[in-house]
Amino acid sequence: MALESPALRAVILGCALLSSSCSDTSEPPRPPPPVEPWDGTYTPLVDPTDWVDRGEYAPCAFTPPPGTVVDCDDPSLFDLSKCDTAPLATLEPHGIYQVDMRHASGLADFAGIRVPADGGTATMNSLPTMRSAPITRQQLQGGFRVSAQYTFRNTVRNLVFAGCGVTGPGLVTGCFARCTDGKVTTSGTFEAARMTWARGESESSGGLRLLSETHVQTVRPVDVYVHRGHAYVVSIDDPLTQAPGGLAVVDVRDPSHPVITKRLTLPGDSYWNAAWAKDDALYIASKSSGVIVFDITDPADPAFVRSVPGRGPIDVHTMFVEGHRLYAVSPGPAPTGETLVFDISTPLEPVLLNRFTAADTTSMFPSAHDSFAYQDRLYVNHFSAGYVVYDVKDPMSPQELGHYTFETDNSYATSHASAVGTFAGKTVAFEGGEYQGAHLRVLDVTDPTNIQLMGRYKLRPQTSIHNMILKGQRLYIAYYQEGLRVLDVSVPPQPREVAYFNTFRESDLHRGDDLLEGAIGIRVPGDGHVYVVDTARGLLIFNEL
């Protein structure tokens, strides 16, 4: 990410603590056209990675070379003589844009811009801090001039954008520059996409209906688990406002009228990123104390039992339960992270069996992030170290069977989440990253020593996929700004979108400028409904297709 070490972060902004009405504006259900059953054959694909270099985005330039002492925010430093700037006058003076940046060296970068329609504080979110800074210059209409200044590691940094032209609805191209302590660091070109519903889409299609919407927390909600008629929604802390995250318990037995029954945190412990339940036990992934165990004999009123493994602080980010095992994934300790295996034969008394790491520690961000257990194998997403497959039949001696990595020189392809199933006798993994341009990969993992890419599904290059749930031959995806996407994967090499619901709206209260904004958490528990967590809107409940 151009000249600076990016720190991928758990995103931070908030949501409102109130209830809102539901809507039903979807198109009538339309059955997908019939397809021939898949016979297991496919043509292996070459992985283009997440971010694809499309060359310079605009015929403009920031004229001072690196190292020059300048006022980075001086508009006269941009050469726009070859640009057609007239269409910039057609832009609205507000909006949320995700910006795909290409440095002159060919490296990838990104930023988010938010200029509210109500005149509120405009912000920019970019590397290396990945936190929002107030915009110091904002002009979206006419010239697309946007800049921000922030402090990082005792240095003052500037990021400046100048529009060159409009290439399509909501698409602006131009040039940018980064400066540090008054000196030019780097520059390049950009393509900014306004985060309105893309491709002329409506709010929904394919028969998806929003049954209810509940703002469950005061800060950013990130995950949900549904068990015994209750949804357990967890949130992370907001380091900017010091507002704590925690757990909200929602009675969803009437999905059209959810009722929040309890909110809770623990003293000094509220950065909670994932939830899972088994029998009378609720498990919460905590940034500071590992896996927190609650007794949910009364599902509306969780009671704290203990934290495991219980020996010092540990950051657990995600969990997966299969049978009597709980797999807890921790991004630390550096540089590899680790996976912890618990025996949960007695659900309220997890017993740590083992902890292990991946062999590859050479990539930029090799930390473990998520996992999926299937047929005595554990598929672990090791971020930029790739997608790693283990034999976990014997939890005391897991064996690394193989991995899928990303060969790229100019971007940071990542492995973040997956779902695995069997199709036509082959073991198929649906896997995706979390970064600029991250999308769905369909992988043949039948032979872990020779994993093949056989299909892809990708939307705008400025957006990122997040989590997914495989239910039969349907794949439900939480796709951040692209909302909820439902794919028919009966022919895995050719995933077909059959329904969507656009959860992202610029007008949502506390809607942020982040790359990782929108639909983030998802569950399809088999009760006829789909539960989605949106970073600003909270818990959304839909019908299951």
Layout of helices and strands:
Elements: E1 19-20, E2 61-62, E3 78-79, E4 95-103, E5 108-115, E6 123-126, E7 131-139, E8 145-152, E9 155-168, E10 171-180, E11 183-194, E12 204-205, E13 210-214, E14 221-227, E15 230-235, E16 246-251, E17 259-264, E18 272-278, E19 281-286, E20 290-295, E21 303-308, E22 318-322, E23 325-330, E24 338-343, E25 351-356, E26 370-374, E27 377-381, E28 387-391, E29 399-404, E30 417-423, E31 426-432, E32 440-444, E33 452-457, E34 468-471, E35 474-478, E36 484-488, E37 496-501, E38 519-523, E39 529-534, E40 538-543
Antiparallel strand pairs: 1-13, 2-3, 4-5, 4-11, 5-6, 6-7, 7-8, 8-9, 9-10, 10-11, 12-37, 13-40, 14-15, 15-16, 16-17, 18-19, 19-20, 20-21, 22-23, 23-24, 24-25, 26-27, 27-28, 28-29, 30-31, 31-32, 32-33, 34-35, 35-36, 36-37, 38-39, 39-40
